[in-house]
Amino acid sequence: MVSTNSYIILSGLLFAIGMFGVLTRRTAVMVFLSVELMLNAANLSLVAFARAWGDLTAQTAVFIVMTLAAAEVAIGLAIIVAIFRKRETTNVDDLAAMKG
Amino acid sequence: MPAWLYELIIVVLKGVGVAFALLTTFAYMTLVERRLLARMQIRIGPNRVGWNGLLQPLADAVKSIFKEDLNITMSDKLVYTLAPLIAITCALATFGGLPAGPPNSFFGANPWVYSLDIGVLVLLALTSMGVYGIFLGGWASGSKYPLLGGLRSAAQIISYELGMGLSLLGLLMLVGSTSFRAIVGWQGDHGWLILFQALGFVTFFVSSFAETNRTPFDLPEAEQELVAGYLTEYTAIKWALFQMAEYVNMITASALMSTLFFGGYKGPQFLNVLIPGISEWPFIWLILKIAVFLFIFIWARATLPRLRYDQLMRFGWKLLFPLALANTMFTAFYLAYLKGWGLWPLGVAGVLGVAALIAGSDRVRPLWNKPGVRVLDDAESPRSKTRIVGGD
Amino acid sequence: MTPLTLPDVPLAPMLPILLTLLGAIAATVLGFFLPRRAVAIIALVSLGLSAVSMGTLWNKGQTAFGGSLQADNAAIALGIVLLIGSALAILVSLDTAGRARLNFPEFDAILMFAVTGTLVIAFSGDLVTMLIGLEVMSLSGYVLATLQDSRESEESGLKYFLLGATGSAILIYGIALVYGATGSLNFTGIAAASSGLQVLNSPLLVAGALMLLCGFGFKVALAPFHQWTPDVYGGAPTVVSLFLSTVVKVGAFAGMLRVFGGALHNAPNWLGVLAVLTAATLVVGNLAALFQTNFKRLLAYSAVAQTGFLALTLLGTQQVGGPALAYYLLIYTLTTAAALAVVAALQRSEAGLEISDMRGLYYRHPGYAVALAICLASLAGLPPFAGFMAKYMAFQAAFQNGFVWVAVIAALTSIAAFIYYMRVAALMFMPDHTPAREYPGARPAITFSVALGVVSITVLGILPNLAYAWVAFPGIWTQLAGT
Amino acid sequence: MLLIATGIGVLAVVVSLLLGPKKPSRAKLMPYESGNDPEGGDARQRFPVHFYLVAMLFIVFDIETAFFYPIAVAYQKLGAFAFWETVSFVALVLVGYFYVLKKGVLEWA
Amino acid sequence: MIHFFIFLPMLASLLLLATPVRWREEVAGFAAAATLGLGLYIWLGGGAALVSVPWIQALGVTYSVALDGVSLLLGLVTALMTFVAIIYTARRIHNPGTMLSLILAMETGLLGIYAARDFVLFYVFFEDALIPALLMLAIYGKTHRMAALIKFGAYTLLGSMLMLVSIIGVKALGGSPSFALADLAAHPVTGAAQTWLYLGFLAAMAVKLPLFPLHAWLPDFHEQNHESGVADVMGTLYKVGAYGLFRFGMTLFPDASLELRPVLMSLAAFTAIYAAWIAFRQPDWKRLLAYAGLSHMGLVALGIFSLEPTAMTGAIYLLAFQNVYTGALFLAAGMLQERVGSLSTRVGGVMTQAPILAGVTMSLWFASIAVPGLAGFIGEFSVLLGAYQIYPWLAFIAGLSTIAAAIYALSAYQTTYWQARPPGGVKIFDLQHTEWLVLGVPLAVCVVFGVYSAPALNLIQPVVRALLGGAS
Fold first, then answer.
1. Which of B309, C224, C451, E54 has its CA 20 to 30 A from that of E78?
2. CB proximity B373 to C under 8 Å
3. What is the pTM of this model?
4. Domain count of chain B?
5. Touching B: D residues 58-97, CB under 8 Å
6. Is residue A98 part of a domain?
7. How many structural domains comprise chain D?
8. Share of chain E above pLDDT 70, in %
């Protein structure tokens, strides 16, 4: 029986890695993957907490989050593909038609 | 010797046993297949090596081990080597979850390697993992034919994944559990599920053909179009591993079908009159049923022509998917409102469903898919005046 | 056989959402058979029906699904604002979609889906429902931003998507932490648990609250999470920017109100952080807007600045902040929608209007110019237009909860705001004899929506009670926390 | 089981590595294009967008299936409520399905 | 009646947008005259009592207006000057529709400021007057108006935003049920908080006084406005800071205003002398007038801040009538520009061809530099008298400004009107039809109230006494 804390620490690590990826990676796909990692970190901690509190609502929440992740994959990939097919790159830095 | 170690050893032994059983089955499967095909095509088939060619598989194995293992220039070395491993791993790992007999019937041990409440889910998960092997193999070869082959098989497999997943739902609703033993038990009480989930079974059957890339769904290796598909750049043992994976998947699929729809390890009850308890004997029944299905696999290969790719996709998406959904919904409706009537409505519905499947299978095109074309009403669009309805 | 009994789920509270959802589905399906105009009309009708059903729910306080969907007055007040904004967006699209190369039914479909999402947020009773709504809204938002087949639009879509997705991820993690701290996903449950919290969990709660704040910061464009805003609002087609900067933002704020005004209102520490973020947003948004040369981008930055003013209301106590937020959101929606509608009407390209091109607009399109001037005055917070009252309430909310320094910063930054608004307004009235640079042609729908917006701004400015009296009752807002 | 399976696979590969002859030659290691020299450089060019579409559709519909499993298992305990839940759910899915059909995404000409 | 007095001009200005071009002058003139008439009628009726109805219940904002002595006097002056301005606009500006409606709109704002007895309402009118002023500058201004606009707007907003915060503060900290002046006075804020709030309020008023550090917008504003001094007249009328301090500042922040008195008074005195000094070398009549007005305002501020009855009375008196003659002088400058085509103070020789214009201008200048017997004198004298009793030295310094005024005014006048006119140039015509009215009426007012100041003083003194009685 692994204690809840270790789950939380693990998910925290995952989240941190994802955040780091978002901040450092430069290709859209990698940023996107990092985001997915963060989502799964959230899922992990949700499940862990749900076990700790011993109720199931959070598990349904996990289901929802999984769906959201899937939807994000669908849309995000669609956008990335659309851009990639128009120009050879998905490097975020190269997207500079508008200077922010 | 502590209990857990004992347990572990047992499990490992069983695992290894299953694995080698599968491998030998695969080996002789190839032989049997070739012989049978030969028969059906009025040839003789391999009969030189050993008596009636019984040593042929051994020879093949030796050959494939001793052949040179190419590692072509454009390939992505790591993935190139990993792909077949993934394929075979998923294939082999799947089988252990299937119960081959009632608990403790196997010299006091359970006739399965691992048993989970969510057995079905795990199985589906593992089988669908196989697609990675194929796709990565195609991609890693860094050559055009394998790439296309990999893509195709990936698309094909995931497309039929849907039909497969949905086809089981009605069954699960009826049984109310995803553990194989529960399913088998249910069938022991109410009779084989094929009777009540005919449509589900047919869907599953077809899907598993597609999943295992068997004729008539073996497009990934359609010689005329892409040489040998994702296998093109593979040689020697890696090639053999892919083949192995395909056949093992076949075996697993057969086992799955027999477990889910044909009463699993339980034999027909009436035989108990002759020999009491025979229907509870482990292994034999399952093996028998598997054998039957394997034969059907080979038979189909000998008989059916290969589908065209568009036909394949259309069939999967436009017929299998909706029908599986319909099957699920009907079962749901039945369970919600018609339960009092007994199980026979399901049987009738199943027959009707199968009829619909067969009826629809060839005349899909006129029925569905008329991509509407509309004249754009904004004059300033730089693109052509007509396009598929809606945006792009 | 047992008769086909429908399960007893109370449909009334869900009706507004269901209606918009039906509109969306209708747009999706009928899009293949009807011209886009008809689809847009259908969408408008469904919006109207949903508004009506909301009206019937007023003061009923009904809930569904064990309180995870609640049609209390707060929800309805915000819902009405959302509907108004969406209706304006569709109206504008009627005239400009052709030029914007958005003239296909998917536009309405996705827009309606987004509206549905925002409504779900407004009606949400627990974090999961809120999350669903938020994501439906955001995902549709990404698609809308990308919908037009042009480099800018796709680029803005990608930026919006990446940052939005990151925001969602952080937000979800925050939800997880809050759940871990309180053991409940229900707003009232969280509020109850967070009031009497054992020391052990409070760090979790604080972390969760801050992460939620951060996630929402991305959604409503609080500095420093605002970087996507100018590019997205500037790069997307003007109609879409209109929708994003009004409805989507209102939806996100509804979520913030639900979460921070309700669930976490007695959780520690987040208020101070929000105050800092607000101040930062005010400064950044207003100063950056000073240096824009493109009117659309200027409006984008001013949207950031307005976010700061809106966030001021969240600093206040529920009794003061709630009505202020509702009123400000209404005014903000009307004003921004009208202003962007004018841009959409006059722009030649989707890049919007260059500020220099607006010189002498008053002598070419007097109506639009005056309307735009009124919108700008209202945004700048000059009486007698409604923007003043809204801004005043925001200041008051922050002031009364002791955030005098934020109020003062807001006051000082709004001078910068006034300057960049006034520069444009004054330019429009300066005589100018160069040929017209605006897009010619009749645009009845836009004219209508602009007129609607401007008239209501003026009327609500002179008689704020028409709108404010509805939401002024503090009970509406205190019960967000279930008290 | 997974470990065992992997073990077997690895074993096989290693063995063949040890025993198999090694006589590489350029022609042998060249990507196979029916005997011609490989054309057009890297084979990992862009795929037809159709494959992406199918993949995304799969994701979406597979999630739907995933949602189905729990309710299916618990179905008999839930009764009519579950039925109508399922109906509304499937109805929404079908809207998407219909849209995809009409768009002709599933056409492989 | 009073509501009509306030809002009639606004209605008229909206009406103007609808009226055909040919009739606009008449309509505007009539409206302005009617407003003035109403004002006089109210005066005869002895002012208008407080009317207070809730406006936004939930926020405690009320619509409460009244016209007691001071408000009435200032309101009358506003109405008068607006009327004059409109007449001149109709004559001078080609196709004046927009300008007329702007002037009328602004008049409503100004009258509202004087009538408001609710802090928020005061703020609302305060800002309302701003918009037309900005538009006048934007539409009719000169080439560099954008800078002037931004300066003007920014300064005003800086003040009014801080004022808004302190308005909120006054109610929140004082705990008054509403923003009505009476309620606020009943629930005063005490201690340091009061000082801070007062500073916030002061910021707005100091901009509009204008007081020394915050006056920079003034000259540009006047210089960039339309040559006919019409907009400048309105601008002059818009200097309501002194009134705001008098009405709200003294009432709500008595302690603070007492506490800050030395600082403020010295600032005021400095403003007066400093402005006079700068005015001394302005080559442009409008800038000169701007600084002259500024220096008068310094005196007004001196009076207001001194919290001393005589000084305050004088300050209000001065405030009222400097509007008259400064405004008239702006118009005179406008006429000059119309004739010689420039506003330079070095034209020379106008006297020979337009004696009457020169004469009237001269006498208006006399009023401005406080020659006894004209309205300016009474105001300035009593301010200095009162201030002397508080801080003699400041009074003395401020007194210097009047002398300086005499110098700059006369020298500029001399170089413009007397000196030999450079050869060539157009024939300068003298006052024509309505121009008589435009300059005559203000002059008459100055003369009348210069010799017989009782009616005005009767209006002012009771209010001042009441106020200081309440304050101390």
1. E54
2. no
3. 0.87
4. 2
5. 58, 61-62, 65, 68-69, 72-77, 79-80, 82-83, 86-87, 90, 93-94, 97
6. no
7. 1
8. 98
